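Today's session is about reading a structure prediction critically. Students often jump straight to the picture, but the first step is always the sequence itself: look for stretches that repeat, for charged clusters, for runs of hydrophobic residues. Only then move on to the predicted structure, which in these notes is written as discrete structure tokens rather than atom positions. Here is the chain we will use throughout the hour.
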Amino acid sequence: MSKEFKIPQFHWGDDSPFKRSEERPLRLTIHNRGLEGLSEEEKSALDVIQELGKLSNLKVLQFEPGCFPHIQLKDSNEEGWVDLHIDHEDGGWTKSSLEKQQVFKNAVHIYDENHENYQEYLELEAHRSRNQDIFITSSKGLLSEGTSFSYSNIRKPSEALKIIGLFLRSRDDWTYWYEKGRAISDKKEFYWFLMRSKLPNVRQHLKKGPNLGNLKDSLTTLSRSVLDRCYTLLQIRDELGKQFYGDNDYEVVLYHFNYFSLLVTGILDAQARIAFEIFNIEGNSPRGAGFNESKKPFLSKLEKKAPSLHQLITGKKNNALIELLHCLRNTIHGSGHTAQDKMGFSNGLHIILSIEAGKEEWKYGKILDCTEKEGLFEHKPRQLTVNGFEQGPQVDYLVEPYNFVSYLLEHTFNLVNMIAKETNITEISHNVQSRNNQWMVDRFKMLGD
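Below is the predicted structure for this chain, in token form.
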């Protein structure tokens, strides 16, 4: 069984800077040699990293002269060694050495200094020797061997920027621009911009237009509820991310995981009530509205009144997503999930799903292509014994919560946005961002996705 995470764990030279007890900066190495010919997305991410690198919470080294300390690698007078010389911005410098044999030991397919990729691996070794946290490059050779050099945390600029953004938020630093002066948002502004960039259709329910008629106040409050809960879900994902890279406190992880399952189904239930009112579903109370299979009377009437919306939510993958999310929530009323540290895995904390939820989550997860890589695992670790009697093998279903919630959140936001489009009650264009406003939204999105 593969245990490779889509969002991989980190290997820290020292204790993780995400831990509450740590105060050290996040240490970045910009691999200039490996950052040529970047795509527009990667170039934009690198530009933001270079801006934010001036913050005190980040410490940046690079392999070319510039605004960050410059690493130079020079042949040593001592055979078998390389001098590592760092020029600092204030004119100071530091010097250490690298053993060439260490490069050959780590890059086992490189046997001598004449190999075409020797210099890249030498630079990677310099990064490791300085206990830097993230090696930022687009080198195909290094990225393709990322698992062989997991201790170096090799990442593309866009991947590194997501971790940098999360780290800054863990330090309550909401800076989103640092080019001609520091531009700082706050917690509310950050998550609001990020959330609305993902849900442009939901926001239309809150706008006043010429064709609204006597719009019920309940539609506005329900739409506001959807946005407020989505706003909170982004924070929950971040809290799980901080634990993933930091303390892995099982009480904190379980709290946020359970809260996620309640809020995410509440969003879909609120949207079902919006549909109930917009399409005048008769013979039901709003309490009977819902998109999961247990709400068949409502779904039957919705099929007649709003066939395109019904088709959307009953499609194979959307239906599987809705049922999976409701299975997570229903455990609140039954046996709960539990946390397990390193249960047959190399690192990290995993949640063992409740007996009621586990099989259903696995069934719907396979329909969604959400299995090991996305953080959902089937695990058979032991024989179950009750009162001294063998009960046969116990099959456990586990999730790595940060990967799992990140996957579900992205798919849920897509579904919520499509449902909002089907229940749109205005004729206002969805392109409501001004050019300057959209620039801010894009910047927050790069830092927060």
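Discussion point for the tutorial: The two ends are 28 Å apart (CA to CA).
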